[in-house]
Amino acid sequence: MANFHFALERQTFEVAALRRVKEWLPQDSVVTVPQVHSFDEDANVIIMDDCGEDAVTLKQLLLTASPQPLLAKEIGMSLGAFIGSFHSRGSGDDACLTFFDKYEMGKSMSAFITYGRLVSTLTEGKLPALSDPPLDIPQDQLDRVAIIAKDTTHAMLTTRETLVMGDFWPGNMLVKLRPGDDGEARLERIWVVDWEVAKPGLAGVEIGQICAELALVQRFSSEGREASKHILTALLRAYRDVRTVGLDVARTALVHVGAHFVAWTPRVQWGDKETVREVVREGVEYLVNAPEAEEEYVRGSLLGELLPQEVSGSVVI
Which residues form the Aminoglycoside phosphotransferase domain (predicted)? Predict the structure, then answer.
């Protein structure tokens, strides 16, 4: 990130994304975005809704006050339906894709911060968790990772597959709860915020990011482990219910889970060194195996629920 100057042009694209999503969403949507009231391009000032002091990020909620299964499933279902519908609308809006395609900085930044650092993360030994001793990833696997990084970077810079939010992770989801009649917490609203890297992108990368983050909660947080499992499963099922997912998108998503594990786990204070190293090695496995994986491999992974269901030899969408 230090190599990037995050220019103020990002505000133009963030405001455009927020306004477009607001137009697409029904007024009673549980998952929404802040309303933009004013944007002064000369002064670089955006005035938008505040989500309220009682809203917390989904990541904070998972790590400090693990939601009960019913609430966790509702959160996952709501987020999956939201992002699936968003990708469906974005893929069919040529004018929108053309407008956001001008956002070269957003595309370059998103590609670099994960795929531009994969090989160096595994080889340079600069991160404490991955040194002393070094990981010693076999050279043939490193070569494969380098190819995947190059190919995915190219795809992220050139694709017009769909419009993506660009940073769809639990830290950008503000959750507001309300007490239910039985005293248990119920979901009132989720705001998805920070749209400053919205652009044409790969749906699989977007899915992979949120799933990787939920998987990391499972690996490192006893408090949020069960809730994150419920959210992940419900999110994937809801996504596939609103947008048909082919094997190619699922492979891309699994590749990105691997890339996220490698690039981000050792850079964030998730937990003990050995578990971090295990997760990074798992990420390398996904990077090596997922690009050409058979359907059975994907179904056996943490993203198995993303693919259409199989029932008695047939496929049920």
Answer: 12-239
Domain count, the chain: 1
Extract the tokens encoding 78.
Answer: 């709501």
Q: Give the integer Cα–Cα distance in Å for 1 and 131.
A: 22
35 assigned to some structural domain: yes
Task: Give backbone dihedrals phi and psi of 94, rounded to 5 degrees, phi first.
Answer: -60, -40
Sole residue written with tokens 């990708």: 87
Per-residue pLDDT averaged across 217-243, rounded? Answer: 97
Adjacent-strand bridge partners of 201: 162
Helix (H, G, I), strand (E, B) or coil at 156: helix
**What pLDDT, in 10s, does the model give residues 93-130?**
999 999 999 999 999 999 999 999 999 999 998 999 99
Q: What is the token pair recorded at 13?
A: 């694209």
**Antiparallel, parallel or unpaired: β 314-316 and 309-311:** antiparallel
**Residue numbers of the domain that contains 30:** 10-298
Q: If you average pLDDT over residues 161-186, what whole number do you get? A: 94
Contact 84, 70 (CB under 8 A): no
Average pLDDT of every residue of the chain: 94
Q: Which two tokens stand for residue 85?
A: 């519908």
Question: Among all chains, which residue has been given the structure tokens 């694209």?
Answer: 13
Type of residue numbered 229: K
Write the CATH number for 107: 3.90.1200
Structure tokens belonging to residue 231: 């959210």
